[in-house]
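Q: Given only this backbone (602 positions), what sequence would you predict?
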């Protein structure tokens, strides 16, 4: 005798067919299922044992007949299904979620039952198992083809994964039920569509819009047209969305953004103004309004509205901070300073405002006040930049002791960034001609961190060129740690080019660096220079020209001048030399280039 599957799910599994599944924690979900399902499954097991409900004890000579092979019939329960579902629920209760999900998936495949497929889908969705979620939702679609939910679940996942073509037919099936969340996902991903994909989605949504008007749908169409660059149709759809729902905030924002992209700031402001009449205007719309006021050069009004924005949302520190930055960007220094100081009083553990107050004081020439603020920065995103700013403010050899004391104290209190601080100190010392002190501080750092590639590379770049063996040793160690470090490959190759005759080895190193970072002007310059050393002037010109176009540094231009001359392009060489001498009259590289091509020194 078989038992209908719906018996199992009456009042039990159906509990998990609701939207509550996404809000329940997995242990709670499975425990609830196990409690309610166990009773019905046991009852079903008794039913499977015989319709009379009576058990007879076999005698000692009684032979137990073998069980008949399990047969699956749609909508009916068998012993294998019963067993796997019980195991799945108990496994879930024990937090063995993989076993639970696999059993549900297997039984969804075998039974074709929509409730089992739904349960498998929800479990996969909760566990964020994308491949199994797609598999389970496809089984659910097959078992219940008129239910839009599994199509929407699959489509949403495919959209997030960027598989826009595969998501389209699923949306076509589900869209007549409308799903605002899926439309929002389409909007968020729209800028990643190819022109063909955007066109296919537009056709689908236009077809749907002709049958059912919806502001979210029209807004999504407007965004897609905007991605295509069809601003006229985009504006038409945004207008239609606002006509359908004047308070549809996304349509209002998108229309204002479109007008802003066209430089029509004042018209964009007019679009937003009706939304600001509410007692509590939308934060995003209000912020966009202030931005547009600044962009339209209505500075006085913009400052007033910026301060009102802060007052309207007093418990939004991120918004307050952004407004302070917006004021600073638009040269409203005092208002920005006041807001930053207020943030420090209200949220003393957030030191980010100190960084920007330091910038303000630095800009106004208040060195000591700026340093005081920078020293108080503890925010990981700004702390290294704060210390670099201090180094720039103390940019004089006489400040050596003070700077070194500051960085030493910082390393003691923040050992997690001591490597970066060591490098910073060494670079400052080297820049101010304290080479021996720079090498000493790097040696100290490498005693603590002997295998740090950054420290080794910095020391190699600090060593005197005559110490070629030491430079090579450090760079070789960097490459042992990081074989694909293009900076180290290039540095070693260029060093060998300049100070040895090991040109073949240098070429091999630079070639590998260039393959890893093909657009780096420093590596392009190295490749051009080694080719010139190898007597391949015509090839050298091509690489050096690329390097010069990207980074017209005197050293690069000096190399290009010599390559032009070697390639027989004397006029180009002289013309570039004269041009560069006007900009850098005393540059040592240009002097060397002029001497090498026998050109007069201007």
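A: Predicted residues:
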């Amino acid at each position: 005798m078989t038992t209908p599957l719906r018996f199992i799910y009456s009042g039990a599994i159906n509990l998990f067919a609701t939207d509550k599944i996404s809000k329940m924690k997995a242990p709670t979900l499975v425990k609830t299922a196990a409690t309610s399902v166990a009773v019905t499954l046991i009852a079903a097991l008794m039913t499977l044992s015989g319709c009379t409900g009576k058990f007879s004890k076999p005698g000692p000579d009684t032979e137990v007949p073998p069980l008949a092979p399990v047969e699956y019939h749609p909508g009916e329960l068998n012993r294998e299904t019963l067993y796997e579902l019980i195991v799945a629920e108990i496994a879930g209760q024990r937090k063995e979620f993989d076993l639970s999900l696999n059993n549900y998936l297997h039984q969804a495949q075998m039974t074709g039952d929509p409730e089992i497929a739904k349960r498998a889908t929800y479990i996969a969705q909760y566990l964020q198992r994308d491949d199994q979620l797609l598999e389970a939702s496809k089984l659910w679609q097959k078992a219940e083809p008129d239910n839009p939910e599994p199509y929407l679940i699959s489509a949403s996942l495919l959209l997030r994964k960027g598989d826009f073509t595969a998501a389209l037919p699923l949306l076509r099936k589900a869209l007549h039920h409308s799903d605002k969340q899926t439309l929002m996902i389409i909007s968020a991903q729209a800028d990643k569509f190819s022109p063909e994909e955007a066109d296919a989605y537009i056709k689908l949504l236009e077809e749907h819009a002709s049958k059912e008007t919806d502001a979210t749908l029209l807004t999504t169409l407007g965004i897609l047209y905007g991605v295509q660059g069809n601003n006229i149709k985009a504006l038409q759809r945004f207008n239609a969305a606002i006509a359908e729902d004047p308070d549809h905030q996304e349509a209002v924002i998108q229309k204002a953004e479109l007008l802003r992209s066209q430089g029509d700031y004042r018209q964009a402001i007019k679009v937003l103004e009706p939304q600001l009449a509410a007692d509590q205007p939308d934060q995003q719309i209000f912020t966009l309004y202030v931005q547009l006021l600044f962009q339209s050069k209505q500075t006085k009004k913009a400052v007033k509205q910026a301060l009102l924005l802060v007052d309207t949302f007093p418990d939004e520190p991120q918004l307050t901070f952004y407004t302070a930055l917006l004021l600073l960007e638009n040269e409203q220094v005092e208002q920005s300073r006041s807001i930053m100081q207020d943030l420090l009083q209200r949220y003393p553990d957030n030191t980010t405002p100190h960084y920007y107050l330091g910038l303000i004081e630095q800009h106004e020439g208040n060195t000591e006040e700026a340093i005081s603020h920078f020293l108080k920065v503890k925010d990981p995103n700004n702390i290294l930049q704060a210390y670099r700013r201090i180094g720039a403010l103390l940019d004089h050899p006489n400040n050596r002791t003070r700077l070194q004391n500051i960085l030493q104290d910082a390393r003691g209190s923040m050992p997690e960034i001591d490597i970066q601080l060591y490098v910073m100190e060494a670079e400052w010392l080297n820049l101010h001609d304290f080479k021996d002190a720079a090498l000493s501080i790097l040696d100290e750092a490498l005693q603590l961190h002997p295998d740090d590639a950054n420290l080794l590379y910095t020391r190699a770049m600090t060593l005197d060129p005559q110490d070629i063996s030491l430079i090579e040793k450090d760079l070789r160690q960097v490459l042992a740690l990081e074989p694909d470090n293009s900076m180290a490959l290039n540095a070693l190759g260029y060093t060998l080019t300049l100070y040895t005759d090991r040109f073949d080895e240098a070429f091999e190193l630079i070639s590998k660096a260039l393959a890893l970072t093909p657009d780096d002007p420093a590596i392009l310059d190295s490749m051009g220079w080694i080719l010139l050393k190898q007597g391949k002037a015509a090839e050298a010109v091509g690489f050096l020209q690329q390097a010069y176009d990207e980074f017209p540094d005197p050293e690069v231009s000096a190399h290009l001048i010599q390559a032009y001359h070697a390639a027989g392009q004397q006029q180009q060489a002289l013309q570039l030399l004269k041009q560069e001498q006007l900009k850098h009259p005393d540059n040592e590289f240009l002097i060397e280039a002029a001497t090498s091509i026998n050109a007069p020194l201007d």
